[in-house]
Specification:
The chain contains twelve helices and no strands. Helix content is 78%, strand content 0%. By secondary structure, the chain is an all-alpha fold. Helix 9 crosses helix 10. The model has no long low-confidence stretch (mean pLDDT 93). The protein is elongated.
Length: 258
Amino acid sequence: MAFSAVLKSEWTKIRTVASTSWTLVIAFVATVGFSAAFCAAVSASFDSMKPGERATFDPVLLSFSGMSFGQLSMIIFGVLVVSTEYSTGMIRTSLAAVPARAGFLAGKLTVATVLALAVGLLTSFVSFFLGQALLGDHGTGIGGEGVLRAVIGAGVYMALLALFSMGVAAMLRSSVASISILIPFFLIVSNLLSGFDSTRKYGQYLPDKAGSKIMQIVPDAMGSAETPYGPWGGLGIMLLWVLAAVLGGYLVLKKRDA
């Protein structure tokens, strides 16, 4: 089967499964909604903030504060795109139609990542403009130094997170196992490792902590810890995690029977 046909078949699978579409909708609504609520709350209490908090205030990063909730839905999207075929047994039919497993996986990841990127960019731009409107005089414009990089980077971050989840799901081949590992990892483990001085030197290299650096325009913004890398270095670290997960998923798909 030609690669274009693989892309078309994967697109059909994704758009006809309601659960994958809803996870993207929830990712958008949760991120925009919580970000707007945080921006409105900070705007109302800005004058009572401590001088140190004002010095590291980052209106752009605050626009994406709801992403810690929305990204969980994006993780589930990535898992479902890959693991649903295993739970339904559809994987046997898919591999019979596309015996070249590298092409099959590349087609699936390409379609899902492009879709996640489109939703991620829509989410980041809406969150930014709505957040800045709520911040009023404390906000900034899209033309400010590093702002456009941060807004586009937020969308890329969400797409990379979905792609990382797809790689993990391809290795585990189970929705339950993948979600049971990924959600606690990003929700609890990552925050715990980054929350203590003794473990922060390790936690700062986890994919979400490193990748989210691209959303900042103020160094050490909002009380975040100093890191040995900048926005692009952080995104590069996250990309290495994604490449490792996708490679692991490919090796499992190549060596194991469906």
